[in-house]
Design goal:
Layout: H1 3-16, H2 19-24, H3 27-48, H4 52-80, H5 85-91, H6 99-102, H7 105-110, H8 119-126
Length: about 130
Amino acid sequence: MSVNTDDRHALEQLDGEPLDEQIAYYRKPFMVLWAAVQESSAELVEDWGMSPELAQLWVAERLRQVCDSLVDRLAERAVGHGVSKSNVSRAAGASPTNALRRFPRLRDLDEGRMPERTLIDDVLDSLD
């Protein structure tokens, strides 16, 4: 069996697992993320006088945007390492036939163009 066949089989099995078991794989990272939202929003409340609820929403939305950018980057990376586009789509919860619709930047790679910078690039640059 090929790696892509093994990956597809694993994704299909994982998709068939109860939601509680699926959540167990990302519960810890979520708890870290939730703590980070709380910490960052407390700074916004202090610095800008925002309500805690609005500050949490503001931080969470920015994190969502960065995470969306990260997902796109990870999809590009996976395809660059030989993972099939259909498996990339499956892993992202999209139809296997919609890889280029879900990840339009993959078309740039197909056509030999370097995709433009994304938000994740700016965030990573800010860590230096």
